[in-house]
Amino acid sequence: MIEDGGVNTEPKPGRWCSGPLMLSFATLARPAKDSLMRLLHAALTCSAEEGADAFYADLLDMKKGSPKTLYAALSSTLLSVDATLRIIYYTGDSLEMEVFIIDSGAGRPAGIDHLCLVVESLAAFLEKCRLRNIRILQVPKGNRLITFISDADGNRFEIKGA
After folding, report:
1. Is 5 a member of any domain?
2. 123 lies in which domain range?
3. 21 inside domain
4. pTM of the model
5. Are strands 63-64 and 68-70 parallel, antiparallel or unpaired?
6. Secondary structure of the chain as H, E, C letters
7. Span between the terminal Cα atoms of the chain, in Å
8. Is 12 inside any structural domain?
9. Residue 76 within any structural domain of the chain
10. Which of 6, 41, 133, 148 can pair with 137 through a Cys bridge, CB separation 3.0 to 4.6 Å?
């Protein structure tokens, strides 16, 4: 059952395409006045590309990008998922969805769902995290670092500098 302002947290058997996002996509993507941070993308899992297309491309009218691959060596370190993952980006006017296609028979991995935030100064933001004893995970990918932090309840955030 979906109530006003909420989401259905009980997906159809064998299908799941969204996490418990309680705000509208437009609200999440719109930066606050004088904000030094904005939402870049939300990363979620779907059990099949057809279901993802039906929801994100057809229903939400987002543009489907070319599929990408995240190899097991990186997905294991970043997401605690020891598998090569297929990723499809769906873009709208003010938000990008990073959708990981995971075979529904494999179960839903816990480490994939996250929000990606862009901060004005990555170095300053990470120093703020260190002062608050927030665990920082940085993993090299090519000539850059991919950075994740988690809140006290384990919600994951990818952090990028502007």
Report:
1. no
2. 37-161
3. no
4. 0.63
5. unpaired
6. CCCCCCCCCCCCCCCCCCCCCCCCHHHHHCCCCCCCEEEEEEEEEECCHHHHHHHHHHHCCCEECCCEEECHHHHHHHHCCCCCEEEEEEECCCCEEEEEECCHHHCCCCCCCEEEEEECCHHHHHHHHHHCCCCEEEEEECCEEEEEEECCCCCEEEEEEC
7. 39
8. no
9. yes
10. 148
What is the spatial distance between Cα 159 and Cα 15, in angstroms, rounded to a whole number? 29
* Domain of residue 65, CATH code: 3.10.180.10
Report the domain count for the chain.
Answer: 1
* pLDDT (tens digit per residue) in 42-101: 888 888 899 899 888 988 888 999 999 999 999 899 888 888 899 999 998 888 999 999
Q: Are 92 and 60 in contact (CB under 8 A)?
A: yes
Q: What is the token pair recorded at 114? A: 């996250």
Q: Which amino acid is at 42?
A: A
Structure tokens at 79: 């997401």
C-alpha 133/C-alpha 137 separation (Å) is 12
What's at 51, amino acid-wise? Answer: G
CA 138/CA 121 separation, integer angstroms = 16
Interatomic CA distance for residues 99 and 56, integer angstroms? 9
